[in-house]
# Entry
Amino acid sequence: MVLDRPQYILRPVRVAWVVTSFALALLLNFVPWHPAALAPDFVALTLTFWCVRQPRLVGLGAGWLLGLLNDAGSGVLLGQHALVYSLLAFGAITLSRRILWFSVWGQALHVAVLLVLAQAVGLAVRVAAGADVPDWSLWAPPLIGALLWPALSFVLLAPQRRPVEVDETRPI
Amino acid sequence: MEHTPPPFFKRGPAPVVRLAFFTLLSIALLVLDARFRTADALRQSLAALAQPLQEIAMLPGTLAGRIAGYFASQVQLREENATLRRQFVEASASLQRLEAVLADSEQLKRIETAAQRRRMSGIPAEILYNARDPYARKVVVDRGTQHGVRAGSPVVDEVGVVGQVTRAHLGSSEVTLLIDKEQAIPVQVARNGLRAVAFGGGLSGLLELRYMALNAEVEAGDRLVTSGLDGVYPPGLTVATIARVERDASSSFARILCQPAAGIERGRYVLILDTEARAAPRPDETAPEGDARGSKSRRVRRKAADGA
# Structure
């Protein structure tokens, strides 16, 4: 349980850092990964993270805009990722209180479910638009993304951690 | 009235309301884009926003490629050089023959006052990467509108047709491969001139000739070339070889599968053809005008008859 572990008191998040992390995630999505079928969706992962951590700050509107940018950049149907990310943001916000109660691997398990459902919505959109159903490798990116969750939470929370060294000159 | 929360607890619309709003907005956009193709202006401006990110994202790959190229072993380079030289000699021999034939045909055309066809010119391009979308078969090449690429141009490699430019950005363009499920190309059997349309087979990586009668005169091994009927692909380019013909009496059409000729998923360099101003105007663009004139003259004639 969460009470067994030491807890950090986090500094308030900076909006600039959230925006930077989204820009970096979009950048990583546009990198031509070599087995392109296995590359996780970094934007979906980052969006889930901020929706879980800061549901008041990042929500469906941010997800929708990021989805539109992703659609235009990767040249797929306009609105596909927008729809997927809106639903993903909604799921993440709804589950955010529950997810934060678990250890980081428990959180990853929840995120895996969310990402697989998001991929399924994307699949439904493309099949409705007349595409073939791809093979099983379609489900690898969400699972790989969930495996990256602990590393991602460490990196994205790093600016919010208080310095561990005690400052003697500090008044409080 | 008594039960509304005080304004400092205001959080805007409920999450479910927001979800409904954004879902409907996305679905509306999807329908606009997929059915009516009217979202292109929005797409262009969004793509311009995403463009700098994309360019930065390409940098590591390009750098790694350059470094790897720098350290390529000399033996490999020498072998490659020898092969290229051999190919060059072969190509130049066939080019000379082609020049002679072209000269002959130009002369013939002049004599017959046939429509002047421009010689094919092309823009060489390098394939950067496969598009990320797992549902479509597309690649991205490193030439865009600033190099003169236009959407709709055919793309070939040294063997045959690769596909067609479906979207041209400023510095790169998106080429839909022949095997994409949405792609179709008018072809002709080289052996007997039979015309057909080859459709992409999607995930199978093959092409399919649809709507061919059971007794159509095709057999495995036949070479397919472009017929040029659509005004997009110039005639005579190699497209595919027929791999299998299944004649099943229970259906009215034969099932004909073809193996694409070009190195559709292997090659690295392609040529984007410029086929501007080659196609004759389509009949449906000229027909209404002629119709209108016809009805007008008829009306005039009727008026004249009334007057008389």
The mean pLDDT of chain A is 88. The first helix of chain A runs from residue 15 to 30.
